[in-house]
Amino acid sequence: MERYEFFLKFLDEKDRIYLKELFYFEPDCAEFISRRLNIDLKEIKGRLKFLENLGIIKRVFIKENYIYFEIRPEWRAFLRKYYMEGRDDESRG
Q1: Which of 39-43, 59-63, 89-93 is predicted least confidently?
Q2: CB contact at 8 A, 54 and 63
Q3: Fewer CB within 10 Å of terminal CB in the chain, N or C?
Q4: Domains in the chain and their CATH numbers?
Q5: How far is it, in rounded angstroms, from Cα 71 to Cα 77?
Q6: What letter would DSSP give residue 64?
Q7: What is the phi/psi pair of residue 59, to 5°?
Q8: Cα angle vertex 84, ends 2, 23, to 5°?
Q9: Which domain of life is it from (predicted)?
Q10: β strands within 1-93, DSSP E
């Protein structure tokens, strides 16, 4: 559990928003996240790559034209508990 909390320290507010978006709408691709949040596609792709490099999310291939991302199972279990406890609100303040 501490390992996951350690990695959360590296995430800024935008990363947390993208991660929460994936938590509720996964698997999803950068293009759809960009449209839903009205944020530049290049920025979304960069942040998803960052989350992927940290090992929080992974690529999944569903359709030929898009690369989808989903939260890794161990992270999903941690985030489920994290969000249920409401701790994501604490990190903002």
Answers
A1: 89-93
A2: no
A3: C
A4: 2-90 (1.10.10.10)
A5: 10
A6: S
A7: -85, 140
A8: 85
A9: Bacteria
A10: 28-29, 57-60, 68-71
Alpha carbon distance 23, 19 (integer Å) = 6
Residue 40 identity? D
Residue 45 CB: number of other CB atoms within 10 A? 16
- Across all residues in the chain, what is the average pLDDT? 86
pTM of the model: 0.81
Stretch 59-68: mean pLDDT, rounded?
83
Q: Are residues 69 and 22 in contact, defined by beta-carbon separation less than 8 angstroms?
A: yes
Asked whether residue 72 carries a pLDDT value surpassing 90, the answer given is: yes
* Residue (of 64, 57, 70) closest to 26 by Cα position: 70
What is the rounded CA–CA span in Å between residue 88 and residue 82? 7
